[in-house]
Amino acid sequence: MPLKKTLALKKILIGVALASAPFVPTATAAQITVGFSQIGSESGWRAAETTVSKSEATKRSVNLKIADAQQKQENQIKAIRSFVAQGVDAIFLAPVVSSGWEAVLKEAKQAKIPVILLDRDIDPSGKDLYLTAVTSDSVHEGEVAGDWLAKAVGDKACNIVELQGTVGASVATNRKKGFDTAIAKHANLKVVRSQTGDFTRAKGKEVMESFIKAEGGGKSICAVYAHNDDMMVGAIQAMKEAGLKPGKDILTVSIDAVPDIFKAIVAGEANATVELTPNMAGPALDALIAYKDKGTEPPKWIQTESKLYTATDDPQKAYDSKKGLGY
Ligand code: AHR
């Protein structure tokens, strides 16, 4: 081919390559450093949220610094102060409990560092102290769980035992409230015992053992409602060790949709779960980048979806799709 024609063809090919090149984050996004005060690793869901946050940050070339608070608010407060001292561009906070944030969040505000809440809320008095919150509607999650149980039980009398999440956590308060509202419409459903299992498998098992003892070996329990799947996995173990058949003699409904609960549903040992996405950081980072780049003010609440899964929703497929996500 003559040289002139070869050069023209080269030009066209370069043009096409540039036009179809993938979107490259802007210079601003590439320079962002975000400090994330994470609660800890109390549950499979929490572990997945940490893993997914890292990959969502990498996708957007954001430098994400994670501080693990080991379930303690005082450690979260220290981490936020340290992020402020380092001059990060933004702070992500998964607040272990809902109260006690005003002083430290005021410090971040004075330093002009935007704060985004992930997966849990703080008291309404702190609304001006953060940019946006990426969370599910945790009252609704409790309602979905309660409505499912009411339908599954029908007219028969049903004594329910409840495993609550961490005391003072917004999601524990709200999941209780939503469930109580849903079952209040059905006189045959009654919560007979309710105690915290702190969102962990070990405590879920321990508390369920005490419920079983107190309820005549579990004979009078018709259903277990747990504020997360990890506590339910612990409770299932306790029921099996007591010679009970979870999922059959005793119905189960919990929240998160972690791979292990799908395994239990496949085995017929669990009945229902309400999904909480572990991807809170992706929408939070998009909101932050738009805010930093273009000054776009995000809505005060970015709500994630809450989907119910039961044995009819191909639990094996759900397990396979989730097992590699860091749960
Ligand atoms: O805040 C979300 C909750 O925290 C999850 O449902 C639970 O598993 C976690 O510990």
Range of strand content? 15-25%
Which ions and ligands are bound to the chains? Answer: alpha-L-arabinofuranose
Low-confidence stretches: 1-27
Number of helices: 12
Task: Characterize the largest beta sheet: strand count, sense, and whether it forms a barrel.
Answer: 6 strands, parallel
Rough shape? elongated
Distance between the termini: 57 Å
Q: Which bin fits the share of residues in helices?
A: 40-55%
**What's the number of extended β-strand segments?**
12
SSE order in H/E notation?
A: HHEHEHEHEEHEHEHEHEHEHEEH
Spatially, the strands of the biggest sheet line up as 2-1-3-4-5-11
> Class by helix and strand content?
alpha/beta
Question: Taking all residues together, what is the mean pLDDT?
Answer: 92
- The radius of gyration computed from the alpha-carbon positions, rounded to a whole number of angstroms, is 23 Å
Give the quaternary arrangement of the chains. Answer: single chain
3D architecture notes:
By secondary structure, the chain is of the alpha/beta class. It contains 12 helices and 12 strands. The chain has helices at residues 3-19, 27-31, 44-59, 73-86, 102-110, 138-153, 170-183, 201-214, 229-241, 259-266, 281-294, 315-322; strands at residues 33-38, 63-68, 90-93, 115-118, 132-135, 158-164, 189-196, 223-226, 251-256, 272-275, 301-303, 308-310. The protein has a 6-stranded parallel sheet, with helices on both faces. Strands 7-6-8-9-10-12 form a 6-stranded mixed sheet, sandwiched between helices. Helix 10 links the parallel strand 9 (251-256) and strand 10 (272-275). The radius of gyration is 23 Å and the shape is elongated. It starts with a helix and ends in a 5-residue tail after the last helix. Residues 1-27 have low confidence and may be disordered. The structure holds alpha-L-arabinofuranose. Alpha-L-arabinofuranose binds at residues 42-43, 45-46, 119-120, 171, 199, 228, 230, 255-256, 276.
